[in-house]
Design brief:
- This protein has 265 residues and is of the alpha/beta class.
- The chain has two domains: 203 residues, Rossmann fold, CATH 3.40.50.720; 35 residues, no CATH class.
- 46% of the residues lie in helices and 14% in strands.
- It contains eight helices and seven strands; from the N terminus they run E-H-E-H-E-H-E-H-E-H-E-H-H-H-E.
- Strands 3-2-1-4-5-6-7 form a seven-stranded parallel beta sheet, sandwiched between helices.
- Helix 4 links the parallel strand 4 and strand 5.
- It is globular and about 55 Å long.
- The N and C termini lie far apart (39 Å).
- The structure holds NADP nicotinamide-adenine-dinucleotide phosphate.
- The site of NADP nicotinamide-adenine-dinucleotide phosphate has 29 residues, from helix 1, strand 2 and helix 6.
Amino acid sequence: MRERQLDLGIAGKKAIICASSKGLGRACAQRLAEAGVDLTLNARSIEPLEATAEQIRQSYGVRVKTVAADIATPEGQQAVLEAEPKADILVNNAGGPPPGVWSDWGREQWQAAVNQNMLTPIMMMTAILPGMIDRGWGRVVNITSGSVKSPIPQLGLSNAARAGLTGFVAGTARQVARHGVIINNLLPGSHNTDRIETLLKTTALQHNISLEEARANAEAVNPTGHFGEPSDFGAMCAFLCSAHVGFMVGQNVLLDGGAFNSTMG
Ligand code: NAP
């Protein structure tokens, strides 16, 4: 029997994927490469970035550029934009803010979180959307968080900064769609990455339990009984960057195993 795969219709397109040497960003890069997309990858540490780039070149035969830079700085954004000035696809991602409670954070912490998780993706879109509009085609996926729909108590910085980005996308996506430029947000619930390990360590310390117990407790309350796999997340990202989403505008796609309990929406 012949192997059949859905053709995403984006082979030969060029994508920028921010914060993509590990975790969810890397999984998005791998799935886009599988669909034949040439990539520009970014992260701060050069070694894991180069390792990911080489693995993708070897596995999928696409062109992969790398930019080692902090995407939350204007210089980092500039370097990525110079490496790929005509991106057809933009995946916005960055590290998440530190956990804590509302009384921990002053102006400096708020400015850092808003810069990283709201202004950085907005600045990347502001720079890239005009070229996409001129060329009549573009796809943007913003990796945000399930915390946009359902606040996570220890991640107040994330809850708020990402809600601001979500508001920007809600308006802007509807202004650029008629030019063939499609923007949507992808909201991860708990996935098996380094980030979740760090958060579980904080929970384990807070409740004086082992890391294994913290993980088991968190997995048990998810309707699936486990955390999500980055490769599935990457597949959804690639679909949201595909030729098939031309009528899907400004949506917030939640991948959380059903953890957000609601009848609709
Ligand atoms: P991760 O496994 O820690 O990977 C983060 C990636 O981003 C790494 O490649 C890291 O490389 C890069 N990075 C971080 N800060 C950067 C910066 N300022 N500039 C450039 N690259 C940067 O994290 P993840 O789990 O994939 O999470 C990705 C995003 O989704 C985060 O914002 C996170 O808060 C959010 N999220 C994750 C989950 C989850 O369960 N995993 C759930 C909800 C939301 P360098 O450190 O070398 O820069």
